[in-house]
C-alpha cells in the first residue's frame, strides 16, 4: 500500500548529521512536519533551516518543525523525550530510528561500559521509543516505524562486535515485531545502508569511549546522503519492508560470502581489516 509523507508527522533520531539530516530534508521536501532529535542542539537547528529551505514553495502552511534534543543512551531521557514528542503534534505517523554510533576497537579492548553504551544507543533506545510510540499508532491502525540498521546487521566485521551485535539485534527485533503486527495497518521497515558519505566512522567509539576520529575509505567513497535519503523515502512510500541502499559490490559480496561461504568470508574480512 502506498503511503505518502505529505502532512505526516515524522520523528527522526540522529537528525543532526549525515543520513538523518538528509532524511529530514527530503521528508520536508515531500511535505512532512518534522520532529528532529539528536544531542547537538545547534546542529539540529541547522537541519531545521535546511528543511525549511527544501520545502516546496507554495506548499500549504503547516505547523513549524520541532527540535527535541536528548541523549538516546540515557533511558530516562528517552522516556521523557517520547512523551514530549507525542505531545508536540498529538501524534507521530512515522518514527524514523536512524541515530547510531559505531565502534573501532577489538572486543578485548572495548570496555564493558563502551560496549553497553553502543548497545543502548543503537538497540535499547530503538526498543524503548517503539514501545512508547506504538500504542497511538495501533489505536489509529496506521503508522510507520523504520529502523536504520547496517550492512553490519547482515554480517559481522572486526572492530565492530558491539556495533554489529546492536544492528543484528535491531533486525531480529523489528522483523519479529513486524510479524506480530501483520494485518494491523502499520508498516515496520528496515533500512540496511552499505556505505554512505557521513562522519559515522569518525564518530565511532574506540575501546575507552574516545572518538575514533578517522574517516574510513569506504565511507569516503560512499553514496551522497541526499541520494540515500531520496531512495529510502521512495521505497518506504512504496511500502518496502527491507531496503538495502548504497550497497556496492563489496557490501553485496560480503553479505553473500558471510551467508554461504563463512570460512572464505572470515579469512577475507580479517585480512582486509573490516568493512
Ligand atoms: N554512513 C554509513 O555508511 C552507514 C552505513 C551503515 C549504517 N549506517 C547507519 O546510519 C545511521 C546514521 O548514521 P550516519 O552515517 O548518518 O552517521 P553520523 O553522521 O555519525 O550520524 C549519527 C547520528 O546519530 C546521533 N546520535 C549518536 N549518538 C547519539 C546519542 N547518544 N543520542 C542521540 N543521538 C545520537 C548523532 O547525533 P548527535 O551527535 O547530535 O547526538 C547523529 O545525528 C546510523 O544508525 C548508522 O549506524 C550508516
Written account of the structure:
- The structure is a single chain.
- The chain is α/β, with parallel strands linked by helices.
- The protein has one domain (9-249): 3-Layer(aba) Sandwich (Rossmann fold).
- It has helices spanning 18-29, 41-54, 75-89, 112-140, 161-180, 217-220, 225-237, 249-260, 262-272; strands spanning 9-13, 33-37, 66-67, 94-97, 143-148, 186-193, 242-245.
- The protein has a seven-stranded parallel sheet, sandwiched between helices.
- α8 crosses α9 (262-272).
- The longest helix is centred in the middle third of the chain and has 29 residues, at 112-140.
- The model has no long low-confidence stretch (mean pLDDT 95).
- The protein binds NADP nicotinamide-adenine-dinucleotide phosphate.
Summary of the model, kept short:
With 275 residues, this protein is of the alpha/beta class. The chain is 47% helix and 12% strand.
Top CATH class: Alpha Beta
What is the number of helices? Answer: 9
Percent helix, as a range, is 40-55%
Can you give the mean pLDDT? 95
Tell me, briefly, the overall form: globular
Number of domains: 1
Bound molecule kinds, no repeats: NADP nicotinamide-adenine-dinucleotide phosphate
* Biggest sheet features: 7 strands, parallel
Task: Say what oligomer this is.
Answer: single chain
Distance between the termini: 35 Å
**Number of E-type strands:** 7
The CATH topology name reads Rossmann fold
Measured by DSSP, the beta-strand proportion falls in 5-15%
Low-confidence stretches: none
Helices and strands: which structural class?
alpha/beta
| Sequence of strands across the biggest β-sheet | 3-2-1-4-5-6-7
Which CATH-level-2 architecture?
3-Layer(aba) Sandwich
State the fourth-level CATH superfamily: NAD(P)-binding Rossmann-like Domain
